[in-house]
Backbone:
């Protein structure tokens, strides 16, 4: 099924730490490919460009060409869809609360002590 | 990094269609392992149990034993975290709107015609 293949591509794209880092970089602003490469000095340019292609094919980024520049934008639609698929609308406030509590517990900012 | 490995496990767990189906089954209610096996006749019991183990290790389901029964619950915390990581709070209403529009367009319920 086409839908399943698309989903598979999204999760495989997200299953790599460097690709998740690229999405983090693009969360708040679009970036040129050159800028992204500069932010990931641990990777060579060719590897970073391969990651960008995987993300683009998965529909997680949109690329706009402007002369010699390639601008990369995060497309969060697939992430919104993951959320919509498994988090029931009426349960959202309590799931958010639970996640916040779990985050705090893991960071050690909430303890059983008074 | 421990955090990266955990993330990797989550996305690899989600990158399989049968496992996504299991999460769909558990979205609205907890189910026993026997019931889940019954809902997935295309898989043998052993394969389904393997999928359940992968989901449990990824933290996407919680298992509670009750005598001979194993009750499986969806834990949506990892999904809430994916959402929180890449969707900026102030952008949420517009991302939801865009996703709804894209869904409608793909289903063909919105056209350019009057």
Residues:
């Amino acid at each position: 099924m086409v839908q399943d293949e698309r989903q598979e591509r999204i999760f495989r794209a997200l299953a790599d730490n460097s690709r998740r880092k690229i999405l983090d970089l693009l969360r708040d602003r679009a970036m040129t490919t050159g800028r992204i490469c500069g932010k990931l000095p641990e990777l060579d340019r060719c590897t970073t460009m391969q990651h960008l292609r995987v993300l683009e094919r998965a529909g997680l980024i949109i690329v706009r060409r402007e002369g010699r520049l390639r601008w990369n934008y995060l497309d969060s639609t697939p992430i919104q869809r993951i959320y919509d698929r498994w988090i029931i609308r009426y349960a959202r406030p309590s799931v958010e609360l639970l996640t916040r509590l779990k985050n705090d517990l893991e960071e050690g900012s909430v303890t059983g002590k008074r």
Remarks:
- Chain B touches chain A at residues 4, 7-8, 11-12, 14-17, 20, 23-24, 27-28, 74, 76-77, 79-88, 91, 95-96, 98-99, 102-103 (CB under 8 Å).
- Helices of chain B lie at 2-14, 17-26, 33-39, 45-57, 77-86, 92-107.
- Chain B has a mean pLDDT of 88.
- The longest strand of chain B covers residues 61-66.
